[in-house]
Amino acid sequence: MLKLGCGCLGILFLGFLFLFLASYAYYEWIWEEWPTERIERVAGVKVPSYKIIEAHKGKRAFTGDYEDSFEIEFKDMPSDELFDEIDRMIASGNTGWRREGNRYSFSVIWGNGLPAPKGESEQNDRTFELIITRGEKVGEIKSGAW
After folding, report:
1. Tens of pLDDT along 108-137?
2. 46/25 Cα distance (integer angstroms)
């Protein structure tokens, strides 16, 4: 009888260990990177290369929801041509771009029945926002899952 109890406890322990490792792997998997090529594909404009100055990991909910933010610095000042192109996109209609003064933002959400941007998976429920300001080399990326 005692051996049966120890065996069950061992199996239970291994089960919890597996769940822990699986959740850790999932946590690491959702920490997403946004290289310039991916931003360009999703936002529809060519952006200068950048480096992350500061990263803020958002709290993870038990459902997997989260929002991370990255303060970025562009290698080169974003050009006036970039902002002129964004202005044309805003004027043309529903592109995900908005403008408030010199501050521009692109925002998109997909998954859970909403279509994914080109090259992204509709299986993943994601959010993405890029915030840039004319005349500044710094910006912000926000990304997450919902």
Report:
1. 999 988 998 988 988 888 999 999 999 999
2. 32
Phi and psi, residue 20, nearest 5°: -60, -50
Q: Quote the CA–CA distance of 48 and 79 in Å, as a whole number.
A: 9
| Cα(38)–Cα(32) distance, integer angstroms | 11
Asked whether the beta carbons of 36 and 47 are under 8 A apart, the reply is: yes
- pLDDT tens digits for 43-93? 999 999 999 999 988 887 777 788 899 999 999 999 999 999 999 999 998
Q: CA distances (Å), 141 to each of 12, 19, 51, 70, 104, in order?
A: 41, 31, 11, 5, 12
